[in-house]
Amino acid sequence: MRAVVVECRILGKPSRIDEVVSMASSLGYEVVGVVSQRRRAPHASFCIGRGKMEELKWLVEGRMAESVIFANGLSGSQAFKISRELGGDVKVIDRNMLILELFKERAMTKEAQLQIQLARLRYTFSWGREYLRLEGILGEQVGWSGPGDYPFKEYERAARRRISRLKKALEAIERRKDALRIRRRELGFPIVVLTGYTQSGKTTFFNLVARESKSVGVGPFTTLSTFARRVEHCGGGGKSEFILVDSIGFVEDMHPIILDAFHSTLSEISSADAILLFLDASEDPQTLIRKASYSDEILRKLGVRSPTIVCANKIDLLSERGLKKALGLIKELLPGREIIPISAKFGGNVDLLLTRVASSLSAAKEMAA
After folding, report:
1. Separation between Cα atoms, residue 73 and residue 79, nearest integer Å
2. Could you tell me the CA-to-CA distances from 341 to 22, 139, 281, 333 in Å, in that order?
3. CA distance 82 to 87
4. How many angstroms separate the CA atoms of 215 and 193, rounded?
5. Lowest-confidence segment of 199-208, 261-270, 285-294 by average pLDDT
């Protein structure tokens, strides 16, 4: 599907256009054009200004694009008005909808599929309501109490029923997961969770340590639901056993509704005995600072109090000087955290990391006793 990616670049905020192009490409979109505009604030009707909207219309027509993807979040009324300007045959979505498409494509478990359905329903609820309202006003539909009112009421009732059913199904899955966590603790297995920004190398590390073959390198959000395996490590003068959990990666500026839908996945982090926070140390300093700060913010919001080891991953892509600079930045951003540089791809320092994990778990056990 041919697509044009659009961004209203707000002054003082990082651009998301490269991230959106990457996500779109991984979903099979052929990005045939990019439109960007710097503004102090998004345009009320089209997100971009009216003049830029005309440029977008010309580009969509000239490149025969079938979709327009905004790197910004859109309100229901903005999505509707942009769609009307471009013509009904052109699909209009925003970054959050693109993330949900990617989630749907990657979902492998029943839990992930239900979470995505719930997030999509809740996020598009206001879109559907606004579409029906504006279509009623502009199309002069007649309902019980004015234009668009009757179809809106029907839509709202049906959507709320579906949301309720999905919530109940997810609650049942969460109860089973809680029982499994309790069982693991009864058996004496501590839980170590891998967390961090998407594409930081968590799943590559999980495959190496747990001897698994989960998909990697297929773009953002390869992991959408937790995946756990028992790990044995011999080092530091003894043998340790723990449950290693691979979890969903973080991404900045994801809509709260989408984060809420994955609460049960993120809850694995807050209940862990130890956390390995992965950062891609090979990224440019500005990106590394942004992602490290955001990851730390998420952990704080989750109320994480467990010992956390920062894994500065992908050191195989760095020079000695570059690694020293990256470690200095991480130390400044995350003071008091132990930082271990590793290469999950080639196994560099992985034994050292596992030994430190075992020591941390042993110390926590002694304190609890």
Report:
1. 10
2. 27, 60, 8, 15
3. 8
4. 18
5. 261-270
